[in-house]
Predict the 3D structure of the following.
Amino acid sequence: MVELSGTYVVPAPRDSVYAALQNADVLRRCIEGCDELTETEPGVYNAQLRLGLGAIRGRYTGRARVRDVHPPESFTLAVDGKGPGGHVRGEARLTLSDVGGNTSISCTATGDVAGAIAAVGSRLIHAAAVRLMERFFSMLAAECGNGERNDA
């Protein structure tokens, strides 16, 4: 199991940041390797991503579901995907708070992998997950303004 956490500051009002986190077009631009992200029903998304970890690379398809929604304060995102390297399942809890006109996003996430990708090793999987999370929040900050990250 991979466990991650981080706190990110985005220089935009909480309502705007929360709305960006619910917008399929914004999310697609923020998710590294995301070729397609379609909202199939409110809070449910189908995705196609190009991902690689070590020698295992390919196109992954998945579904994300937003639940435990408390706008504009928090929500949980559950994801499930599969591809040539195996299966990925995870969950992230995002909590947004106002900080002097900016938005602080606290994110805690857990995930499991199965199949060939699991053979890569937990250290490399963790490093890749951290990089993807860092990239996502960096791109979100670019969408909403400039942001900075602080470890939790």
